């Protein structure tokens, strides 16, 4: 195919909150790494071999063996809120992306995307993959507003612009829909775009946001599937295998270009798996769209040869607001002024240092939420759970429990939630209604 050339007010929030420190960029390292951020779709820990999952993923396992595998990383339970967290570094009660219907609440007129922050730090920037739950991404000008120099994306703001993500895909390449995609497999086209971008910016630094469409439904055959296969279980495994294959091909290209030691690869998933699956032979508690552990606990692998210690497994808590602050620190970027950020950088851990790991993570979907510490979880209703058997079970703790550790945990997490005050932010009651959103889209189309 053709070549695709063409106010930090966090301190006020953070002080006094256990586990949060002001987000600041540290002194510049010897050189700024290239950053490739791969976000798989509907891919929880049961899908990854090195997490004890049911499927073979040799390339992902290889990245983990040569880098860091985080045991406890938490997305939102749905892809829209997760993508908002990644791009803005802000909890969803601030942005308003409380579920998949409210992506338009995050737009570049209100939010400063991570790509824009990295671009200002000298990075070439691109996105390749699914951009569906956030708004304002049809033209090249839209991409630039978010901070992306280039893009090839599936799933933009308007109903008329939707189309297939896999076979015969409808992809937007820098403001123009691709032609001649009949019989072609979308993830392969995205891979070619990503590789072309890397080749052209091999002198670096570059930031590639790679939100893969795999392995979201519909679960279809891949180019490697046996002819005539229709069994969904086999096709599901085929989709995971193809995702893993594409990651391996990307790593091989970086090696060919002699960019591996200059490039940080971060791989994760946007929410838990779509159905009950196992880790280590035991069923995970909950799945996508639930506020159980399985709804948000996702793989997180970081690999940067010569910098990340090989084979390290970290129990550190990470939530998806942390990518913004981590990437900004690695890039020596200036954080946006007068913006409340919620992230906690884990850049020191990527350099092999102990860092200052979070003491809690915050997870929200619509008007339900919880704060989770190392062992305990407290939700918006004041219900406390013992998470010592996570991700397999959460054990309710009675409100009148006399257990000293449980009582202390309740108090600490109540303080966290009290200071965050999600109910004082945007809620489903204060967010625009469906009719209001449709009217806003009509007005936006009219004025484009």
Q: How confident overall, as mean pLDDT?
A: 90
Provide the succession of SSEs: HEHEHHHEHEEEHEHEEEHEEHHEEEEEHH
Tell me what the CATH architecture of the largest domain is.
Answer: 3-Layer(aba) Sandwich
Lateral arrangement of strands in the main beta sheet: 6-5-4-3-7-1-8-11-2-12
Here the CATH topology of the largest domain equals: Alkaline Phosphatase, subunit A
CATH superfamily of the largest domain: Alkaline Phosphatase, subunit A
Outline: globular
Rg result: 21 Å
CATH class of the largest domain: Alpha Beta
Low-confidence spans: 1-30
Q: Enumerate how many helices there are, as a single number.
A: 13
Straight-line N-to-C gap: 32 Å
Relative strand content: 15-25%
Largest sheet: 10 strands, mixed
Structural class by helix and strand composition:
alpha/beta
Helical amount: 25-40%
């Amino acid at each position: 195919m053709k070549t695709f050339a063409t106010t930090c007010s966090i301190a006020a929030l953070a002080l006094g909150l256990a586990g949060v420190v002001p987000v600041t960029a540290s002194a510049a390292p010897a050189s700024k790494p290239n950053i490739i951020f791969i976000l798989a779709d509907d891919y929880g820990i049961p899908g990854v071999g090195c997490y004890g999952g049911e499927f073979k993923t040799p390339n992902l396992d290889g990245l983990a063996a040569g880098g860091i595998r985080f045991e406890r990383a938490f997305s939102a339970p749905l892809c829209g809120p997760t993508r908002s967290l990644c791009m803005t570094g802000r909890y969803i009660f601030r942005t308003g992306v409380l579920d998949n219907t409210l992506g338009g609440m995050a737009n570049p007129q209100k939010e400063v995307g991570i790509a824009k922050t990295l671009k200002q730090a000298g990075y070439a920037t691109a996105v390749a993959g699914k951009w569906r739950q956030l708004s304002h991404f049809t033209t090249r000008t839209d991409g630039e507003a978010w901070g992306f120099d280039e893009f090839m994306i599936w799933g933009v703001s308007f109903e008329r612009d939707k189309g297939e993500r896999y076979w015969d895909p409808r992809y937007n390449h820098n403001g123009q829909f691709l032609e001649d995609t009949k019989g072609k497999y979308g993830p392969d086209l995205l891979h070619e775009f990503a590789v072309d971008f890397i080749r052209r910016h091999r002198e670096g630094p570059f930031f590639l946001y790679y939100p893969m469409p795999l392995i979201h439904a519909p679960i279809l055959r891949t180019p490697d599937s046996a002819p005539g296969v229709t069994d969904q279980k086999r096709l599901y495994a085929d989709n995971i295998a193809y995702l893993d294959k594409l990651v391996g091909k990307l790593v091989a290209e970086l090696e060919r270009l002699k960019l591996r030691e200059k490039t940080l690869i971060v791989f994760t998933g946007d929410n838990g798996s779509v159905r009950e699956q196992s880790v280590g032979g035991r069923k995970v508690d909950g799945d996508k769209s639930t506020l159980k552990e399985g709804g948000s606990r996702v793989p997180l692998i970081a690999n940067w040869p010569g910098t990340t210690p090989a084979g390290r497994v970290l129990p550190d808590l990470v939530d998806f607001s942390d990518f913004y602050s981590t990437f900004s620190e690695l890039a020596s970027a200036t954080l946006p002024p007068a913006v409340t950020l919620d992230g906690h950088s884990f850049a020191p851990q990527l350099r092999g240092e102990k860092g200052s790991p979070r003491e809690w993570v915050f997870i929200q979907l619509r008007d339900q939420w919880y704060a989770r510490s190392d062992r305990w979880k407290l939700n918006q209703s004041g219900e406390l759970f013992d998470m010592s058997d996570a991700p397999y079970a959460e054990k309710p703790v009675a409100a009148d429990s006399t257990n000293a550790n449980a009582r202390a945990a309740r108090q600490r997490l109540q303080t966290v939630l009290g200071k965050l005050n999600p109910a004082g932010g945007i809620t489903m009651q204060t967010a625009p209604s469906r009719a209001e959103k449709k009217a806003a889209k009509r007005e936006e189309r009219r004025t484009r």
